[in-house]
User: Fold this.
Amino acid sequence: MARRSDSSRTMATSVPTSSRRKTGRRSPLASVALLLIGLLATGGAYAAFTTSASASTPASEQAQVSEGKKLFEANCATCHGLGAVGTAGVAPSLVGVGPAAVDFQVGTGRMPMAASGPQAEQKPTQFTNTQIAALAAYVGSLAPGPAIPSADSLKGGNVSTGAELFRVNCAMCHNVAGAGGALTEGKYAPPLTGVTAKHVYEAMVTGPQNMPVFNNLNITPKDKAAIVAYLQYLDSHPSPGGLDLGNLGPVSEGLFVWIFALGAIVVVTIWLTAKPN
Assistant:
């Protein structure tokens, strides 16, 4: 009887052990550990990718600035000095003018100047677009300044609003139709026909030559886009009144009528009265 009870006691203790082995469960800590491992692996891969991508961007920008510095020292430093700090009585400092000023002056051929004069005249450019961008990047790296406008900032302007703003802020020098006009001491406001939208915008934010600077407090970016739209409208729509006489305004048109039309009438009158004699 004692042996039977011992065997039964052995069976009683062995059965729960085998059942636990068959129905064993994974610890909750294992799931948490796997989740943490997955998150760390994903985060590490993303961090490595973004770090490599961000590291390549400054490297390319630095290469562009370095190229622009070489171009500047070879073509511009004679007048503007090393480091673009300017030279007394020859050329101003370019520190702080921003990339937009360089893109306008070099992109329109005004710089480098062919000869010293009261005003830099527009002429064919001497640099490629890549070289102009490099020069702008170099000057922009010297100090903060107006940036080159994006393509989106030049679109969507209201033509009628732009016409009103142009008459108030620009027509006294450039003429209401953008035909340009004379200023003092041999200077002039250039005609705005055929000027690209980017260069018009850059001229407003940088104030080249004798032009004042129109910052965002004077004329908002939206209003600048409206002025650009108005000038583009003038380029694409010829004068509806026929011969525009250079768009120089009513004074030139009245003078034309007075000299040529009335002169022709006087000549015909003299001829008719003199013919019978």
Summary: Confidence is low (pLDDT under 50) at residues 7-15, 50-56. The first strand starts at residue 181 and ends at 182. The first helix runs from residue 2 to 22. The beta strands are 181-182, 188-189.
